[in-house]
Design brief:
Layout: H1 4-8, H2 16-23, E1 27-31, H3 32-43, E2 51-56, H4 63-71, E3 75-78, H5 81-90, E4 97-99, H6 106-114, E5 118-121, H7 124-133, E6 138-142, H8 171-180, E7 184-189, H9 200-213, E8 221-223, H10 244-262, E9 267-270, H11 274-277, E10 281-293, E11 296-301, H12 310-314, E12 320-324, E13 327-328, E14 333-339, E15 348-356, E16 363-366, E17 387-391, E18 397-401, H13 406-410
The chain binds pyridoxal-5'-phosphate (PLP).
The site of pyridoxal-5'-phosphate (PLP) has 18 residues, from helix 11.
């Protein structure tokens, strides 16, 4: 692919320098049309059986974007009381929220119970606590299907080496604890990890979970988790996207077998996070300096690891495009490393990339920045978290989160 920005008309006909000039950099820019397309794809992931996609809001929890999720009729997953509160603020009713926490306090669990939110317990201890707070209540449990997958060991959340979920050999004890509190387990869920492009491990985990489901009698819902991959190398390597059509065919045939054997049809669910917003977002930053140190070229920008931590934390790859005078720069390529303005040598956005020559004053567009981007941003080095804007379907630019101010930065210490 030559340029993702040009191919998608990402800025909706607006001059990118005008956007950067008005809102400043760094700046998260979202494209509503791309986002809605991806949300619809998720909402149609299973067509043959009753199905709900629960968007996992840890990937991106911007309030305006959550309202789009609601308009597109997806439900949501929450990991914390803060996420539940935000979802309620966005207009999600309790029946549209699934709470999937781990290692939480009695107070936080009670908040979900008091608000009538279905909760999934991720350990026998937490199930015991839940039962003592809500005896006779309904709940779900998070199971480990024994198979994990993901782009980095830190995001693989099932299999042998993880803190998450209840394993097969713990089921007897789990039923005993649930029985002691009169709890009715009405749903099971899993999440094997984040970012797979090939469906094989996910489908293996689906089979395992459906096998475990047989131990539960008739369930109201079975939730297969998230992890659907995004082609982060779409410009550099023409990487193709996740093939939902072929995935659906394979998944539905596994569900056919389950429904025939089990003799009932539960509601099936998934928990996609990354896929919803990732490709519908470009992170814009300004080049403030270029230099060559010991023969290695650097472009120094205002996109520090506090703005987008994925490359430093996971070694993640984001394709980058260079913008000069409002247009994408093409031409001969050279090796360059794009860094931020944080005082760490690991503060690197793109390491030793082949890109057209970068000059001071250029804009860098970091692609696929809409998932685990702003939601993992911090004020490290006392830097302000950036603003977020949305290119709406009619080409307007709407501010959907203002940049931090220095008052925001100091507020909690003014005591
Ligand atoms: C329990 C759970 N569900 C869903 C997700 C979403 O995963 P992804 O963003 O890879 O789709 C996560 C992310 O780690 C998760 O922990």
């Amino acid at each position: 692919m030559r340029s993702y920005i040009e191919q998608t008309g990402f800025f909706g006909g607006n001059n990118v320098e005008d956007i950067a000039g008005k809102f400043g950099t760094p700046l998260y820019v979202y494209n509503e049309e791309i986002i809605r397309g991806n949300l619809r794809r998720l909402a149609g992931m299973i067509k043959k059986y009753p199905y709900t996609a629960n968007y996992s809001i840890k990937a991106n929890s911007n309030l305006s974007l959550l309202k789009i999720v609601l308009e597109e009729e997806l439900n949501c997953d929450a990991m914390s009381e803060g996420e539940i509160r935000l979802l309620m603020k966005a207009g999600f009713t309790a029946d549209k929220i699934f709470y999937v926490p781990n290692n939480v306090s009695a107070d936080e669990m009670k908040f979900a119970i008091d608000n009538g939110i279905m909760t999934s317990l991720d350990s026998i201890d937490q199930l015991d606590l839940y039962g003592s707070l809500n005896p006779g209540g309904k709940c779900a449990v998070r199971l480990n299907p024994g198979v994990g997958a993901g782009h980095h060991e830190k995001v693989i959340t099932a299999g042998k080496n993880t803190k998450f979920a209840i394993t097969d050999d713990q089921l007897d004890k789990m039923f005993e604890v649930a029985g002691r509190h009169g709890l009715k387990i009405v749903g099971i869920n899993q999440h094997i990890g984040s970012l797979f492009m090939e469906p094989a491990p996910f489908l293996a985990a689906v089979r395992n979970l459906l096998n475990m489901a047989k131990r539960f009698g008739r369930l109201e819902f079975i939730d297969f988790g998230g992890g659907y991959g995004v082609p982060y190398h779409k410009v550099s390597e023409d990487q193709a996207g996740f093939d939902f059509d072929s995935f659906r065919t394979q998944l539905e045939s596994i569900l056919d077998e389950f429904v025939a054997e089990a003799g009932y049809t539960p509601l099936f669910k998934t928990e996609p996070g990354r896929y919803a917003f990732c490709e519908g977002c470009v992170l814009l930053g300004r080049v403030h300096a270029t230099k060559t140190n010991a023969g290695r070229k650097f472009a120094g920008t205002d996109i520090g690891m506090n703005i987008l931590v994925r490359p430093s934390l996971y070694g993640s790859w984001h394709d980058c495009e260079i913008l000069r005078d409002g247009s994408v720069v093409t031409g001969d390529k050279e090796e360059i490393t794009i860094t931020g303005n944080i005082c760490e040598s690991g503060d690197i956005i793109a390491d030793k990339r082949m890109l057209p020559e970068i000059k001071t004053g250029d804009l860098i567009a970091v692609l696929d920045a809409g998932a685990y981007g702003y939601s993992m941003a911090s004020n490290y080095n006392m830097r302000l978290r950036p603003a977020e804007v949305l290119v709406t379907s009619n080409g307007d630019i709407k501010l959907i989160r203002r940049r931090d101010t220095y008052e925001d930065l100091f507020r909690n210490m003014d005591i």
